[in-house]
Design goal:
about 230 residues, Arc Repressor Mutant, subunit A, 10 helices
């Protein structure tokens, strides 16, 4: 009995996070886009807690009933916005990898291009990203998507790092994991907290790239043995 109740509860929770219907016609797609754009503006202005579906519908110029035709809850809107961010970050990574493979840039230039690309993502509506990533609850479904995207990003970058003889790590995927999360964390914080910045944008990129280049150029554990 308890398992059945748990399964029912989980099913209801899942339904609250998934769009009610997928827009097919142009008018429907326009309505969904208007709702997501309005939600981003409302969250930026009022924060997550006060960003109600009533406010979102009013800003989008649709009725609350129309909003609920597409999104069963505010949480479902957050999931859609975070998925957009995730897709853009993944797109940037694949775009960068293809660019580096074709141009055969050196390691420093490759890292500079990568850091600048991720900074562009985070500097697009940084307050919204801060709210979505740090204020809004992270549903299990989205957590799973993030983990899958993270694993794919590590494999992709690990494969690219193998092309650079300057990389001193025997396990490029482990190095890729640290590079990805270091860049993601620091660029997000740089964009979301301008009041905490000690460096301007260009200097931030130079310093971060220098740190990553030094890390990748050293064999694992070599720093710990220096006396």
């Amino acid at each position: 009995m308890s398992t059945r109740i748990t399964d029912t509860t989980q099913a209801k929770s899942k339904k609250r996070l998934e769009p009610r219907k997928t827009p097919v016609q142009g008018r429907s797609r326009a309505s969904v886009e208007a709702i997501l754009t309005a939600a981003a503006q409302v969250f930026e202005s009022h924060g997550y807690a006060a960003g109600t579906t009533n406010r979102i519908a009013e800003r989008a110029g649709v009725s609350v009933g129309t909003l609920y035709q597409y999104f069963p809850s505010k949480e479902a809107i957050v999931v859609a916005l975070l998925e957009e961010h995730l897709h853009e970050t993944t797109r940037k990574l694949h775009e960068w990898v293809g660019h580096m493979v074709s141009l055969r840039h050196g390691l420093r230039d490759a890292l500079t291009d990568y850091v600048q690309g991720i900074m562009e993502v985070h500097q697009t509506r940084p307050r919204l990203q801060h709210i979505l990533l740090e204020e809004a609850p992270l549903p299990p479904r989205l957590h799973d998507l993030l983990m899958a995207a993270d694993a794919e990003a590590v494999r992709t970058m690990g494969g690219l790092l193998r092309l650079y003889p300057e990389v001193g790590h025997a396990d490029p995927e482990s190095a890729a994991y640290l590079v990805i999360h270091t860049v993601e964390s620091l660029t997000h914080r740089f964009a979301a907290h301008p009041d905490e910045r000690l460096l301007d944008g260009p200097r931030f990129v130079v310093e971060l790239v220098s740190m990553l280049e030094a890390y990748l150029s050293c064999p694992p554990g070599s720093g710990a043995t220096r006396g």
